[in-house]
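Dear colleagues,

As part of the handover before I leave the project, I'm documenting each prediction I ran so the next person doesn't have to rerun anything. This entry is a single chain, and its sequence is reproduced below.
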Amino acid sequence: MIIYRFTYTLLFPGTKMHHDRISFFKRFFLVWMMMFILCMPCGPVFAIEKAKEPLPGQQKSTEALLDDIFSLLHSSPPDARKLAQTILDTLDENKTETHTELLKHIGSSYSFEENFVQALDYYSRALAKAKKENNYKQLADLHNNIGIVNNQIGNYKNALSYFTEALNYYSYLGDEQKKAITHNNIGLLYGDLKNYDKAMSQFRRALQSFSHKKDTLGTIASLSNIAHIHTVNNEFDSALYYTNRSITLSESANNQFGLCISYQGKGNIYLSIQQIPHAIAYFEKSRDIALKINHQSYYASSLLGISKSLLESEKKSEALQLTRKAMQTATDLSSLTLQSSTHMVFSNIYEAMGDFENSFYHYREHIKIKEELLNQTILHQIYDFEISSLSQTNQLQQLELERKELAISKKNNLLWFAVLVFILAITGLYFIYLNHRNHQRVKLQQTIIELTEKKSHAAVEAEIQERKRIGQELHDGLGQLLSVAGLNVSVLQKKKDIAEPRRTELLNAVMRSVDEAFAEVRNISHNLAPSLLSERGLKGALKNLTDQVNQSHQLQMSFETFGLEGKLNSLVENTLFRAIQEILNNTIKHSNASQLSLQIAQGNNEITLMAEDNGIGFDMTNLNGHSGHGLTHMKTRIENLNGSIHIDSNPARGTIISIVIPLNPTQNVRRTHQSIDS
């Protein structure tokens, strides 16, 4: 779900689906932050000029070449990468600082091209060298850059971890300016998660620091981010206020790149409020600046903004022509996200023109690119493991060096005395540790006993409630039908002289009651152990359930699955299906929702269910004290599988429920193939 939102329309939030998409600002500010981190304090990023050519007979220094690479990163990532690789191939191995810088630049060149797998590869190699040399400045910058890549591909948990580590390094270095940049990045992350309160808090914290440091670029970025949050919340007056402040500051600093982005943001605001002429005017300003500074990506995004505005004005042919130009630019740049956005605009235009065949083709291409980006996310997890392995290896090497230094330092007259003191200290610490561990073991056992008692009580309560429910269904449904049948049979027994038509009518009534009783028995049996799960698996059961719900035309239910291969363990499968039934039941009874969306994603170690409705929501503060038996039973089943459940809801905002259940690869999932150990 999150990855889908990222790939759908990365560049333009100002559409009818504005609130469900990642904003264009995210792409700009993450790239801007990476550029800012790469070269500080080299002056304003957007005012950097190419390094001067050397005089005849002179050779450029390594520092000058690094400046050239940095200048090319923004305008031509392939050329920057080529130059960096050339220097790297001939560089002395002893110059580790320069090695790390070049690897970081190559990673950034791939990041700007949205080749995140290669970007993470070079960042991890640079990170290994920085850790080996204890270069805290490079460690801080690389953690921030890796966090940016994780954020761009939707791996928010890892992104937050890397940003937090970067903050720790910057705090140690006392670099308040880069701490502000990292707070801004964390704000973007919370914005993608739709936690706009936390996002706004981070942006304001960054703005305060940038203003204190009189950092014009950072102030512009924070103002635009705050404006975007107001736009998402439909607070368009506030959004225009902060956008205008950003434009004024960009004009005073002659920051053409900042103006380009701010004008696009203002165009998106006007497009959101259907002031089409104003929207077109600001998109055209952004387009002209993008041409002036030769930034093809933002030139294409400006064209898409104009196209959407023209489509709103029913100028379909003009919109189609501009979208074709944008697609040509996206193809030349090899930008998957820009191509994805352009395909979606094509689909909307052709749909408005009534050409549904072309509309479906471009929508299918959009989905295809989305799946390609999803594959990059999966590969990214491999590099996460490599980075962790590198970290552990370097720590072991560092410990080995420290051990050797300690052995040398002990070669003096106090060697035996030091050894004796050391042994006594270790012995004392060991006994203290044993005592502490014993206390912890007792405490842990008490906790486990209490938890076991609570779970047992919950299980017994669940069984009692389930028996009551089954008894009630048998009494209310099956009992009533059999009573009617018995009554009709009794009439036939007592009255021997009943007319043949009346006798036939009573017999038919008896047969109808018996048939209905059989149907009721089948329904009760199906609810107790759904046969669809064993016959069709979780996907088939969900498809059947969705079709039944959608027949009512009161609630529209949809579901998507990612990586759901093979057949799940029956216990996990039943638990997920029961949870979905309970969520659906609560949605129908309490939420007044018209839409319910389910996503199920299976990874190597866990399976995740996310359910989202557009209902009235509820107050989370009353959840613990007023949750019903169904929700309690659902939590108990999930926790018995070591899973977790998280509910996010506010009145009038809808409800999001996420469930994560770990998978045991040898028990919970039956694979269709086997791996071979060497």
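The chain has a mean pLDDT of 77. The first strand starts at residue 556 and ends at 562.

All the best with the project,
I.
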